[in-house]
Amino acid sequence: MKRNELSVIGSLIIALLIVSAIFAPFLAPYDPYEQNLDQGLKGPTYQHVLGQDKLGRDILSRIIYGARISIIVGFTTVIISTSLGIVIGSLSGFSGGLADEIVMRIIDIFLAFPGILMAIAVMAVRGPGLNNVIIALCLFGWVGYARLVRAQALAIKEREYILAALALGGSTIRVIARHLVPNLIGPVIVQATFGMATAILAEAGLSFLGLGTQPPQPSWGSLLNEGRQFLLIAPHLTTFPGLAIMLVTLGFNFLGDSLRDRFDPKMKD
Predict the structure, then answer these.
(1) Quick one: pLDDT at residue 94?
(2) Are 69 and 123 in contact (CB under 8 A)?
(3) Host H or E run for residue 250
(4) Looking at the whole model, is its pTM more than 0.90?
(5) Which of 100, 214, 241, 264 lies most in the core, judged by the most C-beta atoms within 10 Å?
């Protein structure tokens, strides 16, 4: 992976995102909530390299603090969705029969609806807020992982070491935990990498619609929403948060592509 330029670039972007989120109080040049009304909508200057918003708050500081929201939503959503997907998919694929049919029909129902519309519906019921964003994204996020894990489980459960473990008296749960899951974790990691980018984009979209984090808490999606009404007179309000979302999404996609090449022998030269 070190010889893959896209992998290195993606890793550097993700590392920058994580460092910015953890050390935001030390990296942000200004308080993200500090207002300077007489400097509202001011463009990039030496003091404020990315400009200021309508209330005179520093855009760079708010983008750095907004990285925390992206990290929290991305990692929490992926961890919960992956855990649910592994448990449900492995049990369904390994057990087969009626249980597998029921799980697959439930998955088909979830896949019949666009995920973002389901998230909006959940947010409309529960109300805006960071916790509700995570809940909404997890409600449909597990489906893709469960489907992937089930497909892997159907192939792996027929291999000799699985049959040998069952013949030696291993319980279903033990065989799944000790032999099945460790041998299907590679594709799940790849899926989780792409899932991080999807979760960050979904959070930004919900915040842009006013359903995510609420002002004055900085979020990249809410920064876009605040700046869209000044797009012609102060384009920096939307340009820089949009670039942040684009770069982070590219970073996770670059890393996901390299991991897919690493774990999938068919993708190797």
Answers:
(1) 84
(2) no
(3) helix 236-263
(4) no
(5) 241
